[in-house]
């Protein structure tokens, strides 16, 4: 179901070259108008945000769906949440995503295990020490059962949520965090509300990581889907034909 992002990833190198060339051209330009320079930079910043925002969000969605297909009981629980909170009479809307706690926990757990921007090198102290007058204790275990996919771990209160920093922290933190969480939340919720999802075979979805800055999957996700009753309201054909 999901298109392969490999081709786009190959092309992203060309985009960086283009930006470097543009930057050089602006710096060496004899253009007097600062307005032109500002406009060009505004376009570059907007384009940067688009670039930083699209692949990261798409990849996170692909990891989230892969995890759900490998854990059908979690997918079932998410569907039950959507059915009880939204139902099958109308499509889920952005403002309603904040009510879908379990779907949000699925996204948090996906970002914990498969962060789309794994740039923040993990920090931990191997022993009790003092740095610049501050006592830094030896790092204790951060996550229980760290390698398991368990959205339920965020149900115990804020403690686990605060340990999660997939968007960084401080002044350089991701400016698109809010947008990403809304966009991914709404898209994932819509996919679960509108379709039944299954793996293409009995084999589990391959969760190997590929190469690339936004942590792509090594093997693009393929899945089967069947329209749920709500789609009859929006599709002109019978759901049996899909
Ligand atoms: C799942 C989605 C996303 C993840 C996991 C993510 C993660 C991150 C991380 C870890 C950083 C580096 C923070 C640091 O250096 O401490 C970052 C920076 C950035 N992100 Fe995101 N991001 C996502 C989506 C978005 C979206 C949707 C946008 C824009 C619409 C965006 C725009 C940016 C920009 C412009 C920066 C550079 C900020 C700077 O260097 O000052 N990101 N992101």
UniProtKB/TrEMBL annotation:
**Cellular component, GO, one term:** membrane
List the Pfam families.
p450
List the Gene Ontology MF annotations in alphabetical order. heme binding; iron ion binding; monooxygenase activity; oxidoreductase activity, acting on paired donors, with incorporation or reduction of molecular oxygen
UniProt cofactor(s): heme
Q: Which UniProt keywords apply?
A: Heme, Iron, Membrane, Metal-binding, Monooxygenase, Oxidoreductase, Transmembrane, Transmembrane helix
The protein's superkingdom reads Eukaryota
Where can this protein be found? Membrane
Q: InterPro entries per the record?
A: Cyt_P450, Cyt_P450_CS, Cyt_P450_E_grp-I, Cyt_P450_sf, Plant_Cytochrome_P450_Monoox
Q: Does the keyword Oxidoreductase apply?
A: yes
Which residues bind heme per the record? Answer: 174
Provide the primary localization: membrane
UniProt record similarity statement: Belongs to the cytochrome P450 family.
Q: What is this protein called?
A: Cytochrome P450 81D1
Query: Organism, per UniProt?
Result: Morella rubra (Chinese bayberry)
């Amino acid at each position: 179901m999901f298109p392969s992002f490999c081709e786009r990833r190959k092309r992203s190198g060309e985009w960086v070259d283009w930006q470097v060339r543009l930057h050089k051209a602006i710096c060496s330009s004899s253009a007097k108008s600062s307005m032109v320079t500002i406009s060009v930079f505004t376009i570059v910043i907007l384009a940067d945000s688009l670039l930083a925002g699209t692949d990261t969000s798409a990849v996170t969605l692909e990891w989230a769906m892969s995890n759900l297909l490998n854990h059908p009981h979690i997918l079932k629980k998410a569907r039950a949440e959507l059915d009880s909170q939204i139902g099958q009479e109308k499509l889920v809307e952005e403002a309603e995503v904040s009510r879908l706690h379990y779907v949000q926990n699925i996204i948090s757990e996906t970002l914990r295990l498969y962060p789309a921007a794994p740039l923040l090198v993990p920090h931990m102290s191997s022993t009790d020490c003092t740095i610049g007058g501050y006592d830094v204790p030896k790092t204790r275990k951060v996550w229980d059962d760290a390698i398991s996919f368990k959205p339920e771990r965020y149900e115990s209160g804020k403690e686990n949520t605060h340990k999660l920093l997939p968007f960084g922290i401080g002044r350089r933190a991701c400016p698109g965090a809010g947008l990403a969480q809304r966009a991914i939340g709404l898209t994932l919720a819509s996919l679960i509300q509108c379709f039944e999802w299954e793996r293409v075979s009995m084999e589990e979805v391959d969760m190997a990581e590929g190469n690339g800055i936004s942590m792509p999957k090594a093997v693009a996700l393929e899945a089967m889907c069947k329209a749920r009753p709500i789609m009859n309201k929006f599709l002109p054909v019978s759901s049996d034909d899909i």
